[in-house]
Amino acid sequence: MVHSLVRLCAREVVSDHSSSPTWLCWVPRELYGALLEAAFACYRPLAVGELVQRWPERTLCVGGRRKTGQTAPSRLCIQALLLAVVRGLADQRSALQVLDVCGLQGDEGGIGDPMGGWSLTVALCTMVVQAKAGAHRTQRKEGDRDRKRFSALERERDLKRERGQRMGEKELKDDGTCRERTRSKSPVGDEELIKGIRRRMEMERKRGVVVTGSGGSKPETEEKEADWDVLVQVRADIFVNARSWERVRLALSTSGPLKLQCRYLRVEEISVTSIRTLLNLLPRRALLGIDIRYSSLGVAGLAELLPLLSTFPELNSLRLHYCNLDIRRDNFAQEGLLRDLSQGLSNLQELRQLSLTALRLPGQLRVLLSSLPQPLEVLELPYLSLRPADLAYLSCSHHVSSLLQLDLSENCLDETTVPSIRRLLCQASSSLQHLSLSGCGLTDGLLGMLLSSLGGCWALKSLALALNPLSRAGLCDLMQTAARMPCLRLLLYPNPLEDYQPGLPELPSSTQLLEWPLDESIDNNTTSNKLSKVVMDSGRSDLLLTCDLLNFDKDMVD
C-alpha cells in the first residue's frame, strides 16, 4: 500500500512540469527513483532530464527486465536521459558515476515509440563522442582563461619592475654605485622573467596546450588516455551492423569523461576483421555474451575469433546464427580447422550458454561440445542437421544433467533417434525447464513413444511442439500428459492436420505446415476449446495453451 501511494504521488508530481523548480530542490534522494520511474511511465522527458542531471546516487540503472505489461521507455525520454547525463558532467549536484542501460532497448515501432537496440547504440555512441568534444571545449576555455590571467600578472609584474627602476634611477641619479647596483639587478630580473615563462609553459602543457611563438597557442592533436578522468561508466548492450560499425568503433576508442562498456555484443553482417577490431576495443571484464548473426565466418573465421574470446574472463554466452559454418563440403580439408575450433572452445572457461542456428554441422556435435570445460545450462541447436550419432552423444554427455534450456527445433527425429531422446529427457528430468521440439517431424506414433519421458520432466515450465504433423487425437493425448506435469505453465501446440485444407501430404514437412492454408470452414476455436476442456477436466487452470507461433515467448512463465 505504501509503495502504491508513493507511485501515485510521484505521477502527480511529475505531471506538471511548470512546478518542478519549486519541488526539485526539496526532494530527498530516496524519492528520485520513484519520480524517475513515474516520469518514464507518464512520458515526461523534461522531468526525466531534470532528475538525471542532478542524480544524487552513484549508480543509475534504467534498463533491466521489464515487468509483465510494462512498456519500454519512449524514444524522447531516452534522448532526454542521455542529454541529461552529458549536462550532469558539469553539474556539481550530480553524483552519478555508473549509468546502466542494459536491456533498455525495446521493439522498433512498438507501443509508446520505444527505441530499438540499433538506434539506442547509435545514440549512446553519439553521447560519448559529444561528451568528449564538450570536455575538450571546456578545457580550451579554461586554458584561455589561465593564459589571460598569467599574462595579466606578468604585465603587472613588469610594470612594477619598470616603475621601481625609474624611481631608483631618479633618487640615485648618476651615482656610480647606483649604476652598479642597477646592472647587478637587471640580470636577476631577466632570470626571474625566464623562470616565470618556463613555469607558465609547464602549467599550460599539463592542461593540453603548447605555447608557440609570441604568445600563440594550439591544442595538442594527440592526447593520452591518462590525461582524461572517466567521470561516468556507461554499461549497455551494443548492437552493431555495417552501417553503425564506424561510429561504434569511434566511441569505444574515444577517451573522455564517458567510458562505454558492453555487457552483450550483437553484430550482424560484418566481417571477421571488423569483429576482431571491436573485441580488441572492449574492456575485458565487462563482456558477458556475444551474438553473431548473418556473417560469413566459416569454420576458419570462427577458429580465428575463439582465442580472442577466451581473453574475456566473464564471457558466458556465445550465439552464432546463420554464420555459414557448413562443413559438409570439403570435409577432409577442414579437419584441422575443426581441431582448432575444438581447442578454441576449450578455452572458454565460463561458457554456460551456446546457441548454434543453421550452421549445418552434421556428425560434429561431439567435436564441439566435448571440449567445453564446464557443463552448459542453455543449448540451442535449431536447423543443425543433427544425425543420430549427435543425439546419442548428447544424451550421454556431461552437459545433459545441467541443462535448463534445450532447443532441438527443425532437426528431423525418427524411430532411430527416439531412444536417444528418451535417455536425454530422463537424464535432464530434474533440471530441464524449457524444451523446444518444434518442426521435428513428430507424428502421433513418435510423440506417443516420448510422452512417458516428457511426463517425467517434472521441472519443465514451457514446451514447444509447433509445426509437427499431429492429429487431434494425438493432441488430446499430449494434453493429458501435460496436465500431469506440475511445473508446466506454457504449451505451444501445432494446428492439427484436420484443420488444414485438403491436399496436404500425408507426412508434411514443417515448411509445408507453415505455408499451407487452414480450412476456413472450420472454426479456429473448436480445437482450442476441446484441448482446454481436457486440461480443465484434469484440474489444471494455470496451464496456458497456445498455437500462436509468432507470439510465443518462453519468458512469459519466468
Automatic annotation (TrEMBL):
<protein>
    <recommendedName>
        <fullName>Leucine-rich repeat-containing protein 14B</fullName>
    </recommendedName>
</protein>
<keyword id="KW-0433">Leucine-rich repeat</keyword>
<feature type="region of interest" description="Disordered">
    <location>
        <begin position="135"/>
        <end position="186"/>
    </location>
</feature>
<dbReference type="InterPro" id="IPR050694">
    <property type="entry name" value="LRRC14/PRAME"/>
</dbReference>
<comment type="similarity">
    <text>Belongs to the PRAME family. LRRC14 subfamily.</text>
</comment>
<keyword id="KW-0963">Cytoplasm</keyword>
<dbReference type="GO" id="GO:0005737">
    <property type="term" value="C:cytoplasm"/>
</dbReference>
<feature type="compositionally biased region" description="Basic and acidic residues">
    <location>
        <begin position="140"/>
        <end position="183"/>
    </location>
</feature>
<keyword id="KW-0677">Repeat</keyword>
<dbReference type="InterPro" id="IPR032675">
    <property type="entry name" value="LRR_dom_sf"/>
</dbReference>
